[in-house]
Amino acid sequence: MADIPVEEYLCTRIRRAEQALMAHHEAVLRGHGLTMTQYTVLLTLSREGGLSAAQTARSCGVTQQTMATVLANMEGKGLIRRDPSPVHAKVQIATPTEEGRAVLDLAYAEVIVLERALTAAFTPAEHASLCALLDRTTDVLVEQTPPARAR
Fold first, then answer.
1. Is the CA virtual torsion 4, 5, 6, 9 positive or negative?
2. pLDDT in tens, 89-99
3. 81, β-bridge pairs
């Protein structure tokens, strides 16, 4: 094992950055009554139009079971509505309500402040380099992740 302190491992640094990012977003979103998943759902639905629960789950990186709970909660809060699909009678299509769009707009206005601050912290060349490095990091992480095992 290398003599590098754990706090200097790349994985440790990535984890700290991810924790700081999530803490920021959760604090901002909490002020709007949203979880990170609910925010992601509203953002996805506003950009993609109406989607089924399965499509929304894939887009947001959660299971269909988790998404079913999230969508039911959001519908109860008046943030989305679900209507029968014109193609499949048993499938419901989720779309943001006017209230959902208004909450998303307010939350997005605060979330984008961090994106702008991060972008401003780097020169354009550093920003491009960091993006390329993060993309490469993601590729390695995905490549090194073992497939899920059947239970």
1. negative
2. 789 999 999 99
3. 95
